[in-house]
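User: Fold this; tokens only.

Assistant: Input:
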Amino acid sequence: MINKKINIAVVGLGQVGSYLLNELNTKKKDIELKTGKKIEIVAISAKNKNKKRKFKINKSIFFKNPIDIIKRKKINILFEVIGQSDGISKKIVETALKNKIHVITPNKALISKHGDYLSKLAEKNKVNLEFEASVAGGIPILRTIKEGLATNKLFKVYGILNGTCNYILSEMEKTKESFKNVLKKAQSLGYAEPGNPKLDLNGYDAFAKIRILSSLAFNKKISQKKCLMEGIENLEYKDIEIASQLNFRIKLLGITEIINGKLFERVHPSLVKKDSYIGNVNGVMNAVIVEGKPIGESVLQGEGAGPGATSSALMSDLLSILRGNIKYPFGIPDIKRKKPLPYNEKISSHSLYLRLEVKDKPGVLSEITKLLASNKISIERVIQIPDHKRKSASIVIITHRAIENRSQNLINSLKKNNNIIKKPVQIRLF
């Protein structure tokens, strides 16, 4: 049972941590009204006490070393908003749980890597480990799966899980600008990391979220198997343009589903129909679609990133704890969560969009079609776009459904062909 007065610590004072701290202070009366608990921020921690921040901090409760907070202060709830999968992030969460302190975090890297261990630790010490903000920002997708859809048998969850990539793809279509220019714009607006946006662009961010969703949706341990993960770094405006001509849009999708009792997780660019729901989710918005029985199809959409959306999810976790909702982090007892059996992705099949930049000379298309035939991949449509100035051409091929293993063999063969002058672009049809 939680005490009447609740002592709170916030570890990490970047954009999200600072915003959260301000929300806790400005909405204190509202929190107390809705929970019947009084809250007090008794400790904060960050690398730099004197860093300029958008919100003022109380330096009298500042700790440079967050571990000292647990040693010196009576803490009921700790927010971890540092954002690393290991190091001090893992250490402070682990230490807090061992000391019977509830933990709230938006750290998808930490949860996707160490969630099984940390949830077991929380369960052992009868405290909460809450991570609603780790997936899809302000969209309450985790609580929806854990509580709202708890009695449904879910078999597929997919959607747009990275606002950075969705903004870039949407903006390229809207402005006809290059990937490079739109990325710079995203960085200037705070949608992409100014230094190194790699984890967003290569699909890793979305994949960490998919692993968390898989575990919750299917009552499984978090999969650590290396699976299909592709980002948007190789896409160009011409891909957006050609897709549009074919009545498609390009979206980076995270997908997890159960096929024949086995878990199939993946993240990759996908061609989606323009008139589909997912095809009309633009900008920095996220959307998650859950399929199951008896619910059918359930859709959740909202802002997936930014301090406001993230803070909203963190506050919802706080209110859940304050109301006495002590529950299993992944919805069921740890002992009931089984290790997932991985689906063999090599036998999955998709229709493909292939764009090849080739030397403009006789016989090139013939060579390419022979490679497709040798891999037993049939062609539905071919588009050729010559570039006479550069003496090159773009060849776009839409295939019929092909087994993943054959598709990868084809890509490897195409990379070795001397008449193909750039890395082939592959997009799966969804």
